[in-house]
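Model it.
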Amino acid sequence: MLGIISLQGLTRELSLYLESQVRVGLLGSGVGLSLVLGFGAAYACYYLSVIAKRPQLVAGGEALCRFLKQHCPAVTETYYPTVWCWEGRAQTLLRPFITVKPHVHYHNELIKTADGGQISLDWFSNDDDNTRYPDADTRPTILILPGLTGTSRESYILHMIKHSEALGYRCVVFNNRGVAGENLLTPRTYCAANTEDLETVIQHVNTLYPEAPLMAAGVSMGGMLLLNYLGKTGRQTPLQGAAVFSAGWEVFESATLLEKPLNWILFNYYLTTCLQASIMRHRSVLEKQFNIDYVMKAKSIREFDTRFTSVMFGYPTNDHYYTDASPCHRVKSIEIPVLCLNAVDDVFSPGHGEFLYV
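Modeled.
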C-alpha cells in the first residue's frame, strides 16, 4: 500500500513538473506567442480569401440589376460574416441565444376560408406618429410569411416589422393554419405547394386597403410558398413586389442536405418534432382522416411529409409533392419584381440548388 501511495505521489509530482516546464518553455521562449500569432495570421488569410465574398447577383434583366446596384449597394460590396461565427450551422444554432425580441403590439384577425377553416392574421397598423404615411388608406402594406413552424412571435419576424415600422409601413403576418394558437376547424393544415390560403389572405388584405401598395416578404418555407404563388399567378396578383429570404429552391436537394448525419441531429429531427407537436395539438380534428400514431413515428421531415403532408394534399407520392413544392420550376413565370436572398452555406438550401433551373 505504501508503495502504491508513493508511486501515485511521484506520478503527480512528475506531471506537475512537466506541465510547468511546458508552460515555461512555450511562454518563456516566445514559442507560445508565435503559435498564437501564426494561427491568427492563417485564420485571417483563410477568412479573407475564402469566407469574405461579394454576393453573386443573378438578375432576370439588366434594368432590375441596375436598380439593385443603385439602391442596394450591399449587393456589390464584400460581405464579411461574423469573424468568430461565420459557419452557417453555427449561426443558425447561436441566433436564438443572442438575438432579442423587440416588442410589437399586434391586433389579431381570424378570417374564414372556403373549406370552413380559419386563418390567423396578426396586424401591426403603425398608426402612432406615422409622419411618412399618415393616411392609413394609402399606407404601404407588407404581408409577411414566416418559416416552416414559425409564427408572428419569431424574433426574425419581429425585427422585420420593426424595420418596416421605421419606413412607415403597415405589416400583417400570415400564420399558417393551426400554428399560432387558433383552433383547427377542418382537417387541413398547410404545405409549400398549395397557395389557396395565401391567395385568400392576399385578396382579403387588398380588399381592406385597395389604394395601398401591397408587397410581401417570405422566409424559408414562407418564401417558397410566396414564390410558388407568384409563379402561378404571373401578373394576376395585387402584389407590386416581393422579397424572399432563405427559400429552399429545390426541395429534394434541401431534404437530402438535411438528412446528412450532423444536419439531421442539429436540425431535421428537431423540426420534425415541432411539426408533430402541432399535429398533436389538433389530434381530435386530424385523426378522423389520418393515422396520427403513424405520423408521430416519423424521424425526419421527409418521413413526415410522406406520411402526412403529401397525403393531406392529395399527391400520389411524396416525390410528386416535392416536385410541385420546388419554386425552381416556377421562377421563370414570375412577372413582378422579386428580390431573393440566399446564403451559399444555408443548411436548408444548398448553394447550387437555386441555380438548377434558373
